[in-house]
Design brief:
The structure is a homodimer of 463-residue chains. Chain A is of the alpha/beta class and 463 residues long. Chain A folds into 2 domains: 149 residues, FAD/NAD(P)-binding domain (3-Layer(bba) Sandwich), CATH 3.50.50; 231 residues, 3-Layer(bba) Sandwich (FAD/NAD(P)-binding domain), CATH 3.50.50. In chain A, 32% of the residues lie in helices and 22% in strands. The first copy, chain A, is built from 13 helices and 23 strands. Chain A has a 6-stranded mixed beta sheet, with helices on both faces. A 4-stranded parallel beta sheet of chain A has the order 11-10-9-15. A 3-stranded antiparallel beta sheet of chain A has the order 4-5-6. In chain A, helix 1 packs parallel to helix 9 and helix 4 packs antiparallel against helix 5. The longest helix of chain A has 20 residues. The N and C termini of chain A lie far apart (62 Å). The N terminus and C terminus of chain A are likely disordered. Chains A and B meet through strand 3, helix 4 and helix 11 of A and strand 3, helix 4 and helix 11 of B.
Chain lengths: 463, 463
């Protein structure tokens, strides 16, 4: 099981991969037959299937189903080992990474590498207002999703016992910020929760009156999709009871409300006790750490530039990939790659092949992204897909969406479990994972309590 | 959906049930056709399937599968409503319960009842040492199980990066306190984790060397079972690699070790970084609150006495049942009922029938427990069962155990999911829910670090 002792002078090439997401995982897997030793470093012990995290946030899936353990993924790959730690710094000259504390609580020695791959992913940014996160958790990490699950389900619980109609309406108002696939999918799921899943569960609150506002700064939802699909997604959302607010900006988030600026510049404070953040994609902080070590500049979204072979300028032995990079071709132009799992997967596969090729003294041509299409689901039986220019919507797109996501899930068991949960949900409208974890309703600030009486007028205009 | 308005003077009989576990849930369900309104009050939004909680603690099951939402359970029962709150006090004269804060954060008004049922369950006690809980979480609540999961899996992670052999051994030593069914099942599962599930996952640590000590103060495991089954359970545990320490007492628990006093009175400090508590069953605190309100005394295990009709002395309208009571027959003798789910279930069914009978002006004979048997599983394909005096062990008992637990799980989906997880685990030895949540290795106190060098001698005697 343990790595074979290697005679002096015949040390194997050491590849260190930071981040076990879509990109990093593919690098490790792609090197399973290469004559190298691979160490993957991640703060968490699982590889998150990010495209389905929003389903954890609404109780449709259990966290385990989208978070297979990294060790388990690589259990049959003897040249790979996993270290649970945070990468805190890079010394590119000495070819060493510094780590935070190890799992036993001890400080870690610097980890030497021959080839480094950094694939730290992305997170959401709060337009320079990190204080909003306390009131609007981000739908990116599993912790964020579980926090959101508790808040969304807790809001329905609060509405059930709230006797004041204005306050009850605020508990039943959900603001989703960001009209990309994640925001669209989340808004659709909350609407379905209120309309279908929970409609028989409460006695005082009518969950079907729940309002879901989907706020998008651009002039249409799903900006990465063709306009006709944006339009059909918007129609499907409206049918589900979502209020899309395109051309709108969130300008403040408190425990009691969300301030939204309309296209005309007017600002309204919408009384809403629950907000979900899925906007402003920005690279993980490790991108900036790596950029600084390499002496290159990150772009406005915090992404580090890499060349057409996915390596950092001046360091052919340092790869960076996934959501945290911009890929530049030989002419220096940034490729317009979307921040999607397929991009990270293809980049990971490419990096693995290039590293393996180099180990045999060979090279490879530049990375090229093969766009296999783009899809987003809106709700039960509804989705949009753009497959190489062919636009699909409705049930066919939804079936396609299901199949592709099931196929990319890691592990036979998770595929079966997710298929089972989806099948049952399809017929029962139920959601199987609805645990509320230590629900603590956030205190509305004094200002909100004073405003209670004039609560409704502003909010209602969005109904 | 909402409760029908009832004309003045024809108010329906109000039943309030505190606790949505096995007993409380059965009361509510049993009243679905009765001319009463039922309110169930629970701090948590789910009904915990306690007998399988240890499987969550070792990653075999996901929390959702053993924690179906109470609202969902009662969604088709219009005369039942759920309130998420803690019962803080009882005014038996005024027939009112006081609650902690409601889900919207507001203080609750006192809840009036005509009939009260209190079914708060039990927890583990720490022999007067509540400070041990920080180092040995209890395997009773779901939060405890998830905490234990992170600690057990985190300990293997720590062992993987620990270079000192003594410290590594301490990370790979697990102490389970309490030799009842829960402790026996937990010890078996940890042993299987190390021997099977994780054996391919680590590169430096050999998880198969993990030691599991099962400490039981009595002179045999599974005291509620016939002696021959205790013996076969012990043999099965030893075969799995568990070290049963019967006639031993835990006398101290720290972040670094567990002090165990043997039958001869000698105390050994076993270096062990992970401990799990499943001993000293005691009634939930709500039992004492109710006893005080009723002017009766709880017994040494904190249980409130109830009569043969499960009501509290002097208060025929107040029922108490489940793990938190002792049932006394008409002669005043306490019935020797075990603290098991079937007892709570039968008591809950009885209370519902008596309440319904009274609503029609009828009565019922006294509660009688029908002992359908007792079973515990030890590991894959191994279990013991005592069915009305017929002793079964090995694979037949295990099949029986599987069938009974599947049958009692709430919800078709959970049954299917658990069956699927168990089937896959049976063939792959895998465990599907192994997320480590915010692992923070507990700092070993300075004293332990000083002791490091003389770490092994004492601990090794248990090997």
């Amino acid at each position: 099981m343990a790595a074979q002792p290697v005679p002096e002078g015949a040390r194997r090439h050491r590849v260190v991969v930071v981040g076990g997401g879509f990109g990093g995982m593919r690098v490790v897997r792609g090197l399973r037959r290469a004559p190298v030793d691979v160490t993957v470093i991640d703060r968490q012990n699982f590889s998150l299937f990010q495209p389905l995290v929003y389903q954890v946030a609404t109780g449709a899936l259990s966290d385990a189903e989208v978070a297979p353990p990294l060790r388990w993924i690589f259990r049959h790959q003897p040249n790979a080992r996993v270290v649970l730690a945070e990468a805190t710094g890079f010394d590119l000259d000495a070819r060493r990474i510094t780590l935070g504390r190890l799992a036993n609580g001890a400080p870690a020695e610097a980890v030497p590498y021959d080839t480094l791959v950094v694939a730290g992913g992305s997170e959401y940014s709060y337009f320079g207002h990190p204080e909003w996160e306390a009131h609007a958790p981000q739908l990116k990490s599993l912790d964020g999703a579980l926090d959101i699950r508790t808040r969304v389900l807790g809001a329905f619980e609060a509405a059930e016992v709230e006797e004041d109609p204005g306050r009850r309406a605020a508990w039943l108002t959900f603001v989703v910020v960001g009209g990309g696939p994640t925001g669209v999918e989340m808004a659709g799921q909350i609407a379905e929760l209120g309309r279908d899943t929970l409609k028989r569960d409460f006695r005082s609150a009518d969950t079907r009156t729940a309002r879901v506002l989907l706020v998008e700064a651009a002039d249409r939802l799903l900006g990465a999709f063709p306009e006709s699909l944006s339009a059909s997604a918007e129609r499907a959302l409206v049918k589900l009871g979502v209020t899309p607010l395109v051309g709108h900006m969130v300008v403040d988030v408190t425990a009691a409300d969300v301030a939204i600026r309309g296209a005309g510049g007017e600002v309204e404070r919408v009384p809403a006790r629950t907000a979900v953040w899925a906007a402003g994609v920005t690279a993980a902080p490790v991108a900036a750490t790596l950029a600084q070590a390499a002496g290159v500049e990150v772009d406005r979204a915090g992404r580090i530039p890499v060349g057409a072979d996915l390596t950092v300028a001046g360091h052919p032995e340092v790869f960076a990939l996934g959501d945290m990079v911009t890929v530049h071709n030989r002419g220096g132009d940034a490729l317009p790659l979307p921040g999607l799992a397929p991009v990270a997967i293809q980049e990971g596969n490419y990096a693995a092949k290039l590293i393996a090729a180099r180990a045999h003294g060979r090279s490879r041509r530049d990375f090229r992204y093969r766009d296999k299409g783009n899809m987003a689901t809106i709700g039960r039986s509804k989705a949009v897909a753009d497959i190489k220019g062919v636009h699909v919507s409705g049930f066919p797109a939804w079936s396609l969406w299901l199949g592709v996501h099931l196929a990319y899930l890691i592990g036979f068991q998770n595929r079966l479990l997710v298929l089972l949960r989806w099948s049952i949900s399809f017929f029962t409208h139920g959601r199987g994972a609805r645990r509320i974890e230590n629900w603590q309703p956030r205190a509305a600030p004094a200002a909100e309590r004073d405003r209670d009486d004039e609560f409704s007028p502003a909010g209602r205009s969005y109904l």
